[in-house]
Design goal:
- With 254 residues, this protein is α/β, with parallel strands linked by helices.
């Protein structure tokens, strides 16, 4: 869940956005007052209103409904499964002063939920999916390291290290699952990504039990309409998922 529930949670870098929008709105009002005849500041109005809208949590919540409404916001899957599948998100590459890869926030969040399911639901094999886009180790190897550091036995960690997309994770991951006669999995991704991810695995012949995380939520206070960077990020993810669903459908991947 990405929301801002109080002014105290705003970082120093959050304030320039509403401040500049306020300044821009004042300028917009002046432009309308000074406009004459048909020379109206419509482009300025549309751009300012657009920035306001994409930076509101209320809009982010509304746009995410078609993606998330199908799933219950509960930690325990409703049905049984034979394995837990965790897809890679961001994995930061190595650098001169950090000669190692490490899981990005979304990947780490998914891993933590998979670990929680393993310890509090069922101690199932965990399949981590994710290849490499460069010369670093595959994302799945980095994910395996996190799992082992949290006490998951190495013999219960399965690795799919070739995929570079959700489609490939389903394609290569389903092959590994079939080798072990696993047909039902609890799939861990964000709620707004579950439709495409689950459909991809179903297309590959795997029965998916959704285990979604990070639902978009409303705080039911003024912060829902207060411009913030988190809402912009969420709206970007929604656009990405909608385009991805259309593209996957056109390619026959879902």
């Amino acid at each position: 869940m990405i929301t801002v529930d109080s002014f105290q949670r705003l970082s120093y870098l959050e304030w320039p956005l509403p401040l500049f929008l306020l300044i821009g709105s004042i300028g917009l009002v002046r432009a309308w007052r000074q406009s004459k005849g048909g020379d109206k500041p419509w482009l300025l109005t549309i751009s300012t209103a657009g920035i306001f809208l994409v930076s509101m949590n209320l809009v982010a919540w509304t746009l995410s409904r078609p993606l998330e409404i199908w799933y219950e916001n509960r930690p325990i899957p409703k049905e049984s499964a034979e394995a837990i599948v965790i897809l890679a998100g961001a994995v930061h590459p190595s650098s001169p002063n950090q000669p190692y890869t490490f899981a990005g926030q979304d990947t780490y969040r998914r891993l933590q939920h998979g670990i929680w399911l393993f310890k509090h639901w069922k101690s199932l094999p965990i399949l981590v999916c994710g290849g490499s886009l460069d010369e670093d180790a595959p994302a799945a190897e980095t994910m395996k390291g996190v799992l082992e550091s949290q006490g998951i036995p190495a013999d219960l960690i399965l690795i799919e290290d070739r995929s570079r997309s959700t489609h490939e994770s389903a394609k290569y991951g389903s092959y590994i699952l079939r080798q072990r006669a696993i047909t039902r999995v609890a799939l861990v991704v964000e709620a707004n990504s579950m439709l495409r991810a689950a459909a991809s695995f179903r297309k590959a012949g795997v029965t998916v039990i959704p285990a979604p995380i990070r639902f978009t939520a409303l705080d039911l206070n003024v912060m829902d309409i207060f411009p913030n960077w988190g809402a912009i990020a969420l709206n970007g993810e929604t656009v990405h998922e909608v385009i991805g669903l259309v593209w996957y459908r056109l390619r026959g991947w879902i």
